[in-house]
């Protein structure tokens, strides 16, 4: 099994949308025209990288990363990771670990002082991130906007 991690391409948008439907199965499917417009906006954002993991040519997982410039910590940026998902059929094969390693490498190459993410309140997910070297050192807060 050969796993590679790379930046997503627009031609891979249908595979990304399929992965996102596994991440949030209760969400209504995003119309393709909307997805295309959002992809265009994402591709223009400086510091934004959507990573995809491929296993033997099939898209198996993704992580959305963005570097946020920062005026503290000596001007070193922060890398935020969001929308991490590995397809059910590829879980427990090292795909998620490879994605997180690639995200950390992005942060290192952008001279970030930390990589930050929020995780669902799920012990399996917390154990996974801990195994990838992340520490639960803060309490996260969210306020959803309807």
UniProtKB/TrEMBL annotation:
Annotated N-acetyltransferase domain residues: 3-146
Gene3D superfamilies, per the entry: 3.40.630.30
Organism per entry: Streptomyces ureilyticus
Protein known as: GNAT family N-acetyltransferase
